[in-house]
């Protein structure tokens, strides 16, 4: 089921982004111009309370490729809700992610999963959190640029932030020179043969909000590559939104070893 693969691929991506990372302090090495760019990026955060729309999502590995239509709803900093339907009519699966919990079910195989981020973090040996998912989906950097040491350079493509080469987790962020939104993010753990590349080929402006129109994700894990393409459609902001979720009876729980 493609929606389960997409959710777990996103979790793999977040594992790459979390392993080996450390919560830094504000660096005194940051120049005035770097601080100004960081503030502009923070100011460019999509300002909304709720979001509702549609997603066309594609998933591909060397052995498999699928696509699906998904309804998405968000309450900023509180909930991300996804509902997949075949041909926009037949319900297939539903997902609800909150700051403390990840849960979903799929109708074809009649399976479900419920687990909080602490449990998942224990299983994979690293910290996962809601904020990273939200930032990835809204065009903000996964990591706060105010934390840790970065070198900033201004190129024809935009403002490029790069972490210290000695860091176990190498980070590279590219910000648009005009909107200061993320154009690309790359995280690499060479020792574990893991990498994550996120690009934002196109943005759209809706009600004065700059928001991604397309997101492309490539997660490499031990030589295996997973690609996820996301296209947002029919987005509405600050509309009344609810998050209905109830696991049907008779479904089997998915266990992660």
List keywords for this structure.
globular; single chain; 14-stranded mixed beta sheet; 4 helices
Q: Nutshell version of this structure?
A:
It is built from 4 helices and 14 strands. It has helices at 2-18, 32-43, 117-124, 130-138, and strands spanning 50-60, 65-75, 79-86, 90-98, 101-106, 111-115, 150-155, 158-163, 170-175, 182-189, 194-206, 209-221, 224-237, 252-253. It has a 14-stranded mixed beta sheet with strand order 7-8-9-10-11-12-13-1-2-3-4-5-6-14.
Run of helices and strands: HHEEEEEEHHEEEEEEEE
Taking strands numbered 1, 2, ... along the chain, how are they ordered across the largest sheet? Answer: 7-8-9-10-11-12-13-1-2-3-4-5-6-14
The separation of the N and C termini measures 19 Å
Estimate the mean pLDDT confidence.
Answer: 83
Shape: globular
The radius of gyration over CA amounts to: 18 Å
Indicate the percent of residues in helices.
10-25%
Number of strands: 14
| Tally of contiguous helical segments | 4
Sheet with most strands: 14 strands, mixed
Oligomer category: single chain
* Structural class computed from helices and strand pairing: alpha+beta
- Approximately what portion of the residues adopt beta-strand conformation? over 45%
Weakly predicted, low-confidence segments: 19-28
């Amino acid at each position: 089921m493609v929606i389960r693969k997409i959710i777990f691929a996103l979790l793999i991506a977040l594992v790459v982004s979390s392993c080996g990372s450390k919560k830094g302090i504000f660096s005194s090495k940051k120049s005035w111009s770097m601080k100004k760019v960081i503030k502009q990026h923070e100011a460019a955060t999509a300002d909304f309370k709720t979001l509702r729309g549609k997603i066309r999502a594609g998933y591909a590995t060397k052995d498999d490729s699928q696509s699906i239509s998904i309804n998405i709803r968000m309450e900023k900093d509180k909930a991300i809700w996804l509902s997949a339907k075949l041909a926009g009519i037949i319900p297939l699966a539903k997902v609800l992610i909150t700051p403390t919990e990840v849960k979903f079910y799929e109708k074809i195989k009649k399976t479900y999963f419920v687990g909080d981020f602490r449990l998942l973090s224990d299983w994979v040996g690293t910290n996962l959190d809601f904020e990273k998912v939200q930032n990835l989906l809204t065009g903000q950097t996964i990591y706060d640029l105010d934390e840790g040491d970065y070198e900033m350079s201004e190129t024809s493509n935009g403002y490029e932030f790069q972490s210290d080469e000695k860091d176990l987790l190498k980070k590279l962020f590219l910000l648009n020179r005009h909107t200061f939104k993320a154009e690309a993010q790359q995280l690499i753990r060479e020792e574990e043969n893991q990498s994550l590349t996120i690009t934002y080929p196109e943005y759209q402006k809706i009600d004065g909000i700059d928001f991604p129109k397309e997101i492309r994700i490539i997660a490499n894990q031990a030589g295996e590559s997973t690609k996820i393409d996301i296209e947002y459609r029919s987005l509405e902001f600050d509309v009344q939104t609810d998050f209905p979720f109830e696991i049907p009876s008779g479904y089997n729980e998915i266990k992660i070893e």
